[in-house]
Structures are given as C-alpha cells and as structure tokens.
Amino acid sequence: MLKLKSLHHLCVEVPDLDTNTKFATDFGLLETARKDNRVYFRTYGADAYSYVAEPGAKTRLKSVAFLAESRAVLDDAVQQFGATPVRPLDGPGGGFAVSLTDPDGNIIDIVYGIEEREADPMLPAPQINTPDNVQRFNTRHVRPDDGPARPLRLGHIGLFVGNYARSEAWYAKTLGLIASDRMYAGVPNNYVGGFYRLDRGEEYVDHHVVGFFGMGAPGIHHFSFEVQGIEQQMVAHRHLQKANYQPVWGVGRHPLGSHVFDMWKDPNGLRFETFSDTDKYNAERAVFDQDVQKSEMDVWSNDSVERYFS
Ligand SMILES: [Fe+2]
Q1: How far apart are CA 263 and CA 2, in angstroms?
Q2: How many angstroms does the Cα of residue 62 sit away from the middle of ligand 1?
Q3: Tens digits of per-residue pLDDT, 241-266?
Q4: Which of 45, 126, 158, 308 is the right S-S partner for 221, CB 3.0 to 4.6 Å?
Q5: What is the mean pLDDT of the chain?
Q6: Ligand 1 center to residue 155 CA distance, Å?
Q7: Which domains does the chain have, with CATH numbers?
Q8: How far is ligand 1, taken at its centre, from the CA of residue 249, in Å?
C-alpha cells in the first residue's frame, strides 16, 4: 500500500465555470491562481490549493489527489500499482504527481512536493459558558462576522461506487484505507455504504477520508472542507441562504463520524460541504458494521436519508 499523509485537492469539470467560481467564493474558498482555463482555490490552511475547477461538457469529478508521505511513494505507485510516470505539476507550489485509476474510472493522483503556504491564523476559539464551566465574566459572546466560512483543508470526499466490494478492495490494497463504519442491506457483508480512513499507524486521523455509497451512477457525491467550529457553520449557512443557493442538508450532526456538517449545491450540481468536530481514530480502532435500515443521517433531524442524495 502507498503511504499517504492526507487528502490534498480535487479537480472538477463544470459546464458553467463562472457560477461555480462565484459559489466557491461565497462558500469560503479563496481563488489563488488561474492557468489556461483552470481556476485554483485554496483554503485558509497550509495547502497551496484544495479545489480546482475547469470548464467541461458536464459536471464531473476529474481527479482526486492524495498527498504522499515521501517522494519515494510516487515511484512505488508506478512500480507496484501501474501508475503513470512521475510528472511535474504546474499549479501553485509546483510539485510532482502520478495517476492511478480506481475501479470506477476515477483518476486518483498521488502528489508530493507541492510547496505549502503559511496558514492564516485561526480565529480565537469562542468562549462557551456551560453550567459547570463558565468562561465569560462581565463580557458577552463575541459575534462572528457575517459571511462565508473559513475552510482550513479538504478533509473527505463521498463517492458513488459501481461495485462496492471491488472499490473497497482497491482502496484498501492501493491506498491502505481502513474501514471505520459500514452499512449493510439485508445480510451482513452486503455493504451499501461505508466510511474509510487513512492508515497512519498510531496517529489519529479523521473518521473518514473517503465515503462510498453503493447506489446511483459512479461519480462524486460530495466533498468536504474542515472549518473551525459549529457557530461558523451556522453563520456561513445563513450567508449562503441569503444568496439563495440550494441547501442539501445541514447544519446537522452525522451519527457516523460525529462531525457537524452543512451541505450545499453549487449551480452546476456539485455538493460542497463544511464539517467540524469529527471523531479521530488511529489504525487500532475496529470497524463497526450496522444495518442500513437502522442508520440515520442526522442526529438532529427526522428527515429521510433520501434527501441527502437528492
Ligand atoms: Fe461529508
């Protein structure tokens, strides 16, 4: 398996680049470069860029990039898994990449050596008063600024997969992904959804870096950026609502992964999400399987799971 550090960025094609880039900006991403027809967006974190959009005939995922642990991982990808030869990247920060193809034809890039930027400072953490822990004395809650969220990094993607078992096997063998939670339909092992994390040994990582959904045509379901906290998501939700964008679901809390999420559709149909407060697992945590009939999408809502996929 390839030693990976994190998810790095994704590239999409959209029929209407102008509405996509306007949405990405209102969502909180920051345009950092334009090259040919490609628009690069960064977050407030250290990655040189996290989201790349370019015009195409239809809305689709063009590629997803994972950051390798070392330069040698790119050679491993070529020699052990048949990746394309190492090539230089021409986006901000340079670097190198190789490309793999997953069982559904998604291009999975392994990248290394992209120069990082200096991350913007985090906002001061809100002081929260609870009955057993008062933090604010003779002062009031500092109201967050109205406006977009401040995404910090690309954290995970959700993919519709054509053959669940085939995808699970490929991502485990090639990228070393570990199952955190899976859902089965009818009988155990008939998985229809699941969440997979990076194998970083003892290091604690997000509950998932990739989610699989075993229904619908293969392709991207959503992609998600970490933000600092729940209140920022609530304020950003209000900002997107005011701009009349299409909400999908949120602000809610997923039972699997425990993260607070807020998902919106851009005018091209791409689902953008923010998340905060996710569970962190290391490689020791055992997988938990459950019947999909018993699964819920949101701890705070009675809405049916279907809406998440609409
Ligand atoms: Fe998500």
Answers
A1: 30
A2: 19
A3: 999 999 999 999 999 999 999 999 99
A4: 158
A5: 96
A6: 8
A7: 4-116+150-309 (3.10.180.10)
A8: 11
12-47: pLDDT as tens digits: 999 999 999 999 999 999 999 999 999 999 999 999
Q: How far is the CA of 209 from the centre of ligand 1 (A)?
A: 9
| Ordered per-residue pLDDT tens for the chain, 310 residues | 999 999 999 999 999 999 999 999 999 999 999 999 999 999 999 999 999 999 999 999 999 999 999 999 999 999 999 999 999 999 999 999 999 999 999 999 999 999 999 999 999 988 999 999 999 999 999 988 899 999 999 999 999 999 999 999 999 999 999 999 999 999 988 999 999 999 999 999 999 999 999 987 999 999 999 999 999 999 999 999 999 999 999 999 999 999 999 999 999 999 999 999 999 999 999 999 999 998 889 999 998 888 888 8
Q: How far is the CA of 236 from the centre of ligand 1 (A)?
A: 16
Identify the CA nearest to 168 among candidates 269, 72, 289.
289
Distance CA 172, CA 176 (A): 4
| C-alpha 206 to ligand 1 mean position (Å) | 11
DSSP string, the chain: ---EEEEEEEEEEES-HHHHHHHHHHHT-EEEEEETTEEEEE-SSSSS-SEEEEE-SS-EEEEEEEEESSTHHHHHHHHHH-PPPPEE--STT--EEEEEE-TTS-EEEEEE-PPPPPPPPPPPPPP--BTTB---SSS-PPPPPSS-----EEEEEEEE-SSHHHHHHHHHHHH--EEEEEEESSSTT-EEEEEEE---TTS-EES-SEEEE-SSSSEEEEEEEE-S-HHHHHHHHHHHHHTT-EEEEEEEE-SSS--EEEEEE-TTS-EEEEEES--EE-TTSPPEEEEGGG--S-TT----THHHH-
